[in-house]
Fold:
Amino acid sequence: MSPIKYQIFIPGGNKTALVFGTEGLETDITRRCEIQDKILARHAKDPGGEVEQVGFVSLDSSAPALIMAGGEFCGNATRTAAAHYLQNGTGEIEVSVSGATKKLRAGRRITGEVWAEMPVYEDLAEAVTPLSNGTYWVQMDGISHLIIPQRMAASYLDRIFARESRGEQLDIAVNLLEQTIAEHKLPAGEAYGIMFLENTIDMLTMHPFVHVKTAGTTYYESGCGSGSMCVGLVSSYLSGKSVKLDLVQPSGKVISADVEQAQGKVRGRISGAVECGEVLEF
Structure:
């Protein structure tokens, strides 16, 4: 059997592995998850932080494509795919991404920032659902997130980070998320997260916890692209206009969320730095 080759990328602190499909994309989710689990285990104690997600890319640069291990949508992995296909150059591509119903534009600017279009609903009222408890449920193709505003988040974060065990921290966050989904009968798919917001030194910081059932993973992510987009969508929903938010991630890095409202339709993209690491194999 040929060795599995992959490359490490760090978009906004969110350490991501892209596996190169020598014979096209791996369509078997069981096989994808087996490879994912090996990579996660291999990098669980890396000095620079563990790998938090694994995606698979085609080697056919004429038809860029990305599929996540669990088949979900991932914003940061979409940016890493753009960095991979552009090979440190500038420009723009269209990439097919798991979870998204249409191809997404992505690219790298001359500044070095890597951006990606997000699969947002064109109708903002369909994307953002305000809940009776003061939180917001936000849907995109392939993933959904619960947004906890700053005024509510502090008490939850105190409770979560009072626990020394990472497992207990994750359990508290995911239990709150799943209780909210059940109570409000929300249309959650196989991938969803909860974003706690916090104001720090005139910047908006977010604390993302993301659960992907199909991949069997739950992380307090060092950075979350789709979550950043969903925070931007809530801000645009509340203000009634286009917005650009710079969101500080747990890594200390920034992911920018741009939401454009024009002619009754909504478009969104995220952008920020992506570090490219070495190619490895096993």
Observations:
- The chain has a mean pLDDT of 95.
- The longest helix spans residues 166-183.
- The first strand starts at residue 5 and ends at 11.
